[in-house]
Amino acid sequence: MSSIAKPLALPHAEEQEDPREQLMHDPRSRGEMNDMVMESMHSTTWKYWTVTGILAVIVVVCLFYAWYYLIMQGLGVAGVNRPVYWGIFLVEVVFWIGISHAGTFISAILRVLKVEGRRPFTRAAELMTTFGLVQAGISVFLHMGRVWLSYWLIPFPNERGLWPDFHSPLMWDFMAISTYLLSSTMYLFLPLIPDMAMARDRSTGWRKAAYRILAIGFRGTEGEWKNLITAMNIFAFAIIPVMFSVHTIVSWDFAMASRPGWSSSVFGPYFVIGALHSGMAAVAIVLFLIRSTMKNMKYFLRPEHFDLLGKLMLMVSMAWAYFYFNDYIVSWYGGDKWEKIVQEFTEKGPLWYLWYAMLFFNIVVPFAVLWNKKWRQTPWLLAIVGLLINAGMWLERYIIIPETLTINRMPFTWRLYVPGVEIVLTIGNFAFFFLLYMLASRFLPLIPVWEVQEGHESHTLRKIGKASIPTLSDME
Amino acid sequence: MSDLTMLLAVFEDIEPASGGIEKLRDLGVADDQMNVISGIPIKATILGRRSALTRVPAIAMTGAVLGMLLGLFLIYGTPFLFPLNVGGQPIYPVPQGIIITFEMTMLGLMGFAFIGMFVDSGFPSYTPKEYIPEISDGKIAILFRCPDNEQKKFIDALKKLGAESVELAEARQL
Amino acid sequence: MATDLQLPVFTNNSENELAGRWGMVIDQDICTGCQACVAACAMENNIPFVGEADAGYGRTMHWIRIERFWQGTFPEVKMTPYQPVLCQQCHKAPCEPVCPVFASVHSVSEDINLQVYNRCVGTRYCANNCPYQVRVFNWRDYTDARQRPELVTLQNQLNPDVTVRRRGVMEKCTFCIQRIRHVEDTAQSEGRDVRDGEVVPACAQACPADAIVFGRVDDPTSKVSKAAITSRGSHMLEELGTLPRVTYLAGGSAQ
Q1: With 50 as the cut, is the pLDDT of residue A420 above it?
Q2: Domains of chain B, start order
Q3: CA A332, CA B53: separation in Å to the nearest integer?
């Protein structure tokens, strides 16, 4: 007898309702979730303290001591020279600001669009924004020749009678990054208040005192919630254009300069997408680390969340490829003499392998891995892809800054850049970023419990036919 | 008129809580004599109440205007105080003005939204308040005032609707 | 035939305050590449010795450098004329607007790019945006005798009219502004105008071939104005529209 249906999939390939995959199939009460999050904050092992201690030592030696050395000796101990006046410090600035963009993207854009899957990991992403901006700020100060005078960039009435020059892209940058740092820190704090109240209600000792101060007396009355939600909505909408403006202005630091390889009008959106590219990838790494090292996190961070993140990474990777190609072909086709030289130097010069590595990590790797749902849902694999994307994006910034600066319109001055103390300080920067996360993971609830509960409340499992499917009711 | 007492009724779920509110209203408690305390934001219509007024948007808009004025002062006021020629660019440039004004407007908007949230809710306040820690475990509490001598009537009515407990609300150190 | 394109002319609102627009003409055809200007400039302007390692790594701090290139492939190589490059004192300088603290500003009276050392915070944006790559940075405390004891005796040769810069500060050619000021003050006290050829920057003074001519370009009778309008003259990277003040002469027989 001949079959009248297409060949059926094997039974094990059937899409099962796997409670391990989706948070909604395994809802728990708020009290239980509170206890789980509190437990994850309280449990510290010797491994945790060892890693924290090592990171702290690295920060003290590689960041603070090396910075002291840099200040005392001058920038001669770094690798910058003529014509490469901007080196790895600026690479780090762009890199960390890029990392910081993921927090806002996930938290604000996904909140505005009501993407439900965002709920458990908004906090971790928002922390990334603030901690990334701390590193970017440090890198700016590392870069300055006379950092002890950096307050001269702040516009305030002073006895010098002088105000900063708002003609300068660096001033725009200063204003934009300050705005972004302040607003993203406030935006991190707002959804934290109810969780601080939660932590206050179930802790003792010094933690109680600290949480009591941070919870600012929040009870959860109608008026308090209304104000909080209103403020969060204002932030969610307002911080999106600020986020776009910040990385656009960072790109203008380069695009405004009349240098071959920099003066490109597509730099703004290209940098924004690049920022999201590295930021999403960094979220994947951090979520993997949180999930695999902290207690109870496997409940909150499910394969569905990694799946969502993987899809976002894939989309951003495609967009990045598009913008990069856009920038590339315009210089290639335009045939400007200096642009051509810069392009040839990047592709065939002594650092040609960086260019190929960048394209491989940023385009080939995510394309090869992220189309597969099973692979997207594998946290360690997504973390590795994230790591490679971040390496690729770091190289992209390295190519744009020190490598492009090698070439200018005065061939007599062309000279390669060899990093010096920057490498040590970069290690210090990364260690500081992770140290802040390590400390925050034991002090701040990394899961916004009230938002997860809100998600549980607005979802119901509805039986349609033989399957039970989570359906969403709009409670906001 | 007799003295009023403050009572705190704790409910497990949203459904009975909204019933409780209706009952209280029937028993003659005015809308401004009750308040709902919850661990998640609950839309006022779900509870059958009118939503709370918030002054946060107004405060935020004020901040945006102030921020914009600050931005305009920085870009067009400071060069007036100390004009310097750089690269033949205008002393009062328009394109740069857009950037600085935008950033300062947004900073004012968000900064004041943040401050407004504090001001309108009376944060930070560390004085004792009527509260029980179970609320952050997802329970819903109705805080209301009722006449002293009719306490029993209110407690029985709410218990019948499924209140876990109805007790005298005592202000405690949070 | 030249067509008047009616292009908008750049106007500075302080144009009528001009005290003197200084300019320079460099004749590449008679430059011998002897580096005397480089040495003289270093002596005049207290430019520090950066040491062998830093010099080899592109951190020399000379305000003027002599560029020389080879044309063609070995063995058929030909030398191009020597090209002394110093700050072109652009009328529309790209280095100026990018400074966040007004350390690189335009002098409206002299029409010279100023670098205010004690206002500089060392972002090095100006150097990146300079198409001529003539700005130099104090990478270390090259002039601090406490760190480099060998400098103790050399300190006696410092020019008292010029400051000594410390680490973290950008600097560049000033057209020997101290000499311009000195001559202007002398002329004023004697109640006369500055004569053509009275101001001689260190590089021009040291040039054995007299390849560098300095003077006022707003005076059509000055030596420098006459030299600049010959058909051999050109401006460096003129297409960028920076309106440089230094004219290069090349491509003909020396006069």
Answers
A1: yes
A2: 4-53+128-172 (3.30.70.120), 56-121 (no CATH)
A3: 59
